[in-house]
Design brief:
Pfam families: G-alpha. Keywords: GTP-binding, Lipoprotein, Magnesium, Metal-binding, Myristate, Nucleotide-binding, Palmitate, Transducer. GO terms for molecular function: G protein-coupled receptor binding; G-protein beta/gamma-subunit complex binding; GTP binding; GTPase activity; metal ion binding. One of its GO terms (biological process) is adenylate cyclase-modulating G protein-coupled receptor signaling pathway. InterPro entries: Gprotein_alpha_su (IPR001019), P-loop_NTPase (IPR027417). The structure is a single chain. By secondary structure, this protein is mainly alpha-helical. The chain has one domain: Rossmann fold. 50% of the residues lie in helices and 9% in strands. It is built from 4 helices and 2 strands. A two-stranded parallel sheet has the order 1-2. The radius of gyration is 16 Å and the shape is globular. The termini are far apart. 4% of the residues are buried.
Length: 114
């Protein structure tokens, strides 16, 4: 997880992505939920600063999202987080629709039409 965070930091702060929105996919949410909720594990193994309760999926996910958002040098940068399970085709379709909507909205705003 920490390697992923470091890579995200390099990408999001790259000069080529200064003026772009970013979509962050937190995949395998089903496996994460199984470990956090069903096995009552905490994410303190990967994130020492986490002080939320073990077994609380929402608190763990919010903490991880906050960690990813915090590595952006530009705190105003649009970072859209999606929790996904790639084997859930309905969820993947929903996420892809949301991504398409984000892209279209951005382009329309750029043209002054939104």
């Amino acid at each position: 997880m920490l390697e992923s965070l470091q890579l995200f930091k390099q990408v999001i702060n790259n000069k080529y992505f200064v003026n772009t929105s970013v979509i962050l996919f937190l995949n395998k949410i089903d496996l994460f939920e199984e470990k956090i909720v069903k096995k009552k594990r905490s994410i303190t193994i990967a994130f020492e600063g986490y002080s939320g309760p073990a077994g609380d999926l929402d608190a763990a996910v919010k903490f991880i999202e906050k960690k990813y958002r915090s590595v952006a040098d530009n705190k105003e940068k649009n970072i859209y987080c999606h929790h996904t399970c790639a084997t859930d085709t309905q969820q993947v379709q929903y996420v892809l629709d949301a991504v398409l909507d984000t892209i279209l909205s951005s382009k329309l705003k750029g043209c002054g039409l939104y």
